[in-house]
Specification:
With about 500 residues, this protein is of the alpha/beta class. It folds into 3 domains: about 80 residues, Archaeosine Trna-guanine Transglycosylase, Chain: A, domain 4 (Roll), CATH 2.30.130; about 140 residues, Rossmann fold (3-Layer(aba) Sandwich); about 230 residues. The chain is built from 14 helices and 23 strands. Strands 19-20-18-17-21-22-23 form a 7-stranded parallel sheet, with helices on both faces. Strands 1-2-5-8 form a 4-stranded antiparallel sheet, with no helix packed on it. The chain has a 4-stranded parallel sheet with strand order 13-12-14-15, sandwiched between helices. It starts with 7 loop residues before the first strand and ends in a 16-residue tail after the last helix.
Length: about 500
């Protein structure tokens, strides 16, 4: 039964603010708080419930989200004009909250595609990767040849997709940036959702084909091919050769069928973008509940976006299975502090303008809501960008907060599914892995229903609980992994969203 959305929400008794669930006019009486709004409060934004002196911390989720940059009166709007980020000590309490996972006795299953080597796929694509920006056009022309009815004879192939990028040359061939690019390309070349992969290079680029294959332990075979435009005699000949190679792969790629496999084969990358003041109340906790179910069924979930756990990392170190795992998180936080400093930036450069319009004020506030996506189970390991994820359960991967870059790293690490929460209405896909979109609020869901897979705004009106919606998300993950298309797949998203993390100088 539907209920009326409340005026506001108090998330914790220790909080200094409450969250407006609808626009509150000046003079609105928040009776249970004994507070009257001194000004208009937009939906999703914060209202002070006590007077806060300049320099004092302000808490939401019973955690510090910032410090008053000026005196804040009870009933005032708390936002960028009176709240700022300052450094403060966090107690990492390594492993103190770790509890072994209680696995279910009868794990759930889905209809997956089992590769000959035992890897399990949720989709069945043929991929074309470029070593360098210079080979991107040829890669796209090859893929374009298989649009429309070209795959009619191969009903079990989901498509031929070209994943291109703007790097691969003009960079230190022995530097960190090249290592990251090669690791990312290798992760996609090995990805279970690709039945076959063709890698196309120019021939003279910094990211040489033989170096890529040697450093990443790749070996050519019938379903992993490589060629360069210069060796083939130019664009036209290279396109023709690429089309011929893909045609050789298609009959083999088509020889698959789905069969019941345990949910332990699912690896979900967790993303949030275009967040708002409700993200940490509805969609992120609901996704966290789904993650707990997936982990209890033996599956894996990857939390990422290191700049968006900043100020909340102590909640993850407590869940680490060992001090060494927890220290990996802190080490990545320190790296990011140094990285932003040397680039004359700051960690609080995030939230974005859209996040702020939705009610998020500081990176600390955003991070506290973002970590809710990771549920409550133990943190089993921490990975650098695009490293292969080998641990089962809840893990963390170091990535930027920029969603396409972050998800690209997760997929390179093995994610065969993406779950993406959004409060502003991000549109996104991530081939070869399907992406599910979780809306944080009902008005946005209704406005963008063609793009959103689940409405988590129902939590606000009390018509569904976080746990109930978590169960629904888990069931949708299983259905999507079994072949049911996501909204972003229907729209064709996913080819242009391949964005490897570019680190280092362009030279």
């Amino acid at each position: 039964m539907l209920r009326e959305t409340p005026l506001y929400l108090r998330l914790n008794p220790a909080d200094d603010v409450v969250i407006a669930c609808r626009e509150l006019e000046r003079g609105t009486n928040l009776l249970q708080e004994n507070v009257v709004c001194l000004e208009r409060i937009p939906a999703g934004h914060k209202v002070a419930t006590r007077a806060v002196a300049k320099g004092e911390p302000v808490r939401r989720y019973s955690q510090i989200i910032g410090f008053a940059s000026q005196p804040i009166a009870a009933g005032a709007h708390v936002h960028v004009h009176n709240l700022e980020v300052r450094d403060f000590a966090r107690d990492y309490a390594y492993g103190e909250g770790y509890r072994p996972t209680e696995f279910v006795s009868e794990p759930a299953t889905f209809k997956g595609i089992v590769r000959p080597d035992g890897r399990v796929a949720t989709r069945n694509y043929v991929g074309i990767l470029s070593t360098v920006n210079c080979s991107a056009t040829v890669a796209k022309h090859v893929a374009k040849a298989f649009e429309g009815e070209a795959l009619a004879s191969y009903p079990n192939v989901d498509g031929v997709v070209a994943l291109t990028h703007t790097a691969g040359c003009g960079m230190d061939v022995g530097g960190e940036g090249m290592d990251v690019l090669r690791r990312t390309l290798a992760g996609y070349a090995r990805h279970a959702n690709f039945a076959g992969v063709l890698v196309i290079g120019l021939g003279c680029e910094g990211n040489q084909m033989d170096a890529l294959f040697f450093t990443q332990g790749l070996a050519e075979g019938p379903l992993l091919r490589a060629m360069t435009i210069q060796d083939k005699g130019g664009t036209a000949k290279a396109v023709a050769e690429g089309i011929a190679i893909v045609k050789e792969m298609l009959p083999v790629a088509n020889q698959v069928e789905r069969s019941p496999v345990p949910a332990s084969a699912i690896v979900v990358g967790l993303q949030c973008g275009g967040s708002d003041g409700y993200s940490g109340i509805t969609a992120n906790p609901a996704l966290g509940a789904a993650v707990d179910l997936l982990v209890r069924n033996g599956g894996t979930a990857i939390l990422s976006e290191t700049p968006e756990i900043y100020g909340a990392e102590h909640l993850l170190t407590r869940r680490a299975q060992s001090r060494a795992v927890g220290e990996k998180i802190v080490a990545r936080i320190k790296w990011w502090e140094e990285y932003t400093a040397r680039n004359k930036g700051e960690m609080n450069n995030n939230p974005t303008p859209g996040n702020k319009a939705g009610g998020l004020t500081t990176i600390l506030e955003k991070s506290l809501g973002a970590v809710a996506k990771g549920g409550t189970t133990g943190l089993m390991d921490v990975y650098e960008y695009a490293q292969p994820v080998t641990a089962k359960g809840f893990v963390f991967m170091d990535t930027p907060g920029y969603d396409p870059v972050s998800a690209t790293g997760q997929v390179a690490g093995g994610a065969n599914m993406i779950c993406f929460t959004t409060g502003r209405g991000s549109v996104y896909g991530c081939k070869p892995s399907p992406s599910l979109k979780l809306a944080t609020n009902t008005p946005m869901y209704e406005r963008m229903e063609d793009d959103m897979d689940i409405n988590c705004g129902q939590i606000l009106d009390g018509s569904v609980t976080v746990q109930e919606l978590g169960q629904k998300i888990f069931e949708l993950i299983l259905a999507t992994a079994s072949g049911e298309p996501s909204k972003s797949e229907v729209h064709g998203f996913g080819q242009d969203e391949f964005v490897p993390w570019y680190i280092g100088a362009v030279v």
